């Protein structure tokens, strides 16, 4: 199964004919997917074609490296489940795996941004970050301001800063699901802070959601 075999390993095995047809299709779909995502990300950048090609390669390699680091983490955690029977020992060793994973992904993140900075300006790097994370950060920020229209500047900054941090974390995971979970985690933090400052959340958010649904139905 793909979860148990590195996609890069599958690509190699596919070339020498040792992988089943279904797995061949799966790894081809994966490579095509990250190629398309990288191409889409750079297509919107106002840079020349040569730089677009280089930036696309940087983005593509980032996706591959994220996959490699996640695969290593998951393989180590799976091995611990099978080989370490003591629950406390398994927990401690699992925590060690996660610490090493976070260190590796943080190093990769910094290296990635450093490479982008050699080709792009700050605004263009933000464009790449938003494109990698499906523009959830600016959309969510807009929704917060639209939902709570009497926020103070310091509260707006708090929301913005939290969502920027969410985006930095979401860039480091390989699936939509985990990206969205990072944003969900930070939305929860924002809601808790707003609630602690006396902002009414429940009825305001329900009224806003009803308003958005009405707008959507009106456009149909």
Blueprint (SSEs and pairs):
Elements: H1 7-15, H2 21-43, H3 49-83, H4 87-117, H5 122-132, H6 136-147, H7 153-170, H8 176-196, H9 202-219
Helix pairs in contact: 1-2, 2-3, 2-5, 3-4, 6-7, 7-8
Mean pLDDT: 88
Rg estimate, integer Å = 21 Å
Q: How many structural domains?
A: 2
Summing up helix and strand content along with how strands pair, one would put the structural category as: mainly alpha
Fraction in helix: over 70%
- In one word, what is the shape? globular
Please give the largest β-sheet: none
Name the helix and strand elements from N-terminus to C-terminus, one letter apiece: HHHHHHHHH
First CA to last CA: what distance? 42 Å
What does this protein look like?
- By secondary structure, the chain is an all-alpha fold.
- The protein folds into 2 domains: 7-120, no CATH class; 133-219.
- Helix content is 81%, strand content 0%.
- It has helices at residues 7-15, 21-43, 49-83, 87-117, 122-132, 136-147, 153-170, 176-196, 202-219.
- Helix 2 packs across helix 3 (49-83) and helix 6 runs antiparallel to helix 7.
- The longest helix has 35 residues, at 49-83.
- The chain is globular, with a radius of gyration of 21 Å.
- 15% of the residues are buried.
- Residues 1-5 and 12-16 have low confidence and may be disordered.
């Amino acid at each position: 199964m793909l979860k148990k075999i590195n996609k890069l390993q599958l690509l190699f095995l596919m070339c020498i004919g040792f992988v089943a047809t279904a797995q061949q299709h799966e790894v081809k779909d994966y490579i095509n997917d990250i190629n398309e995502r990288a191409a889409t990300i750079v297509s919107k950048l106002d840079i020349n074609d040569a730089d677009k090609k280089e930036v696309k390669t940087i983005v593509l390699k980032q996706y591959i490296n994220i996959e490699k680091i996640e695969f290593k983490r998951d393989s180590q955690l799976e091995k611990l489940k099978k080989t370490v029977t003591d629950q406390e020992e398994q927990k401690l060793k699992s925590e060690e795996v996660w610490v090493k994973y976070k260190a590796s992904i943080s190093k990769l993140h910094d290296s990635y941004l450093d490479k982008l900075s050699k080709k792009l300006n700050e605004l263009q790097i933000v464009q790449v970050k938003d494109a990698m994370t499906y523009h959830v950060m600016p959309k969510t920020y807009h929704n917060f301001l639209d939902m709570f229209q009497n926020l103070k500047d310091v509260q707006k900054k708090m929301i913005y800063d939290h969502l920027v941090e969410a985006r930095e974390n979401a860039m480091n995971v390989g699936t939509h699901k985990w990206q969205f979970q990072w944003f969900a985690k930070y939305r929860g933090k924002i809601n808790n802070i707003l609630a602690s400052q006396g902002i009414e959340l429940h009825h305001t958010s329900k009224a806003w959601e009803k308003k958005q649904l009405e707008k959507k139905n009106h456009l149909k």
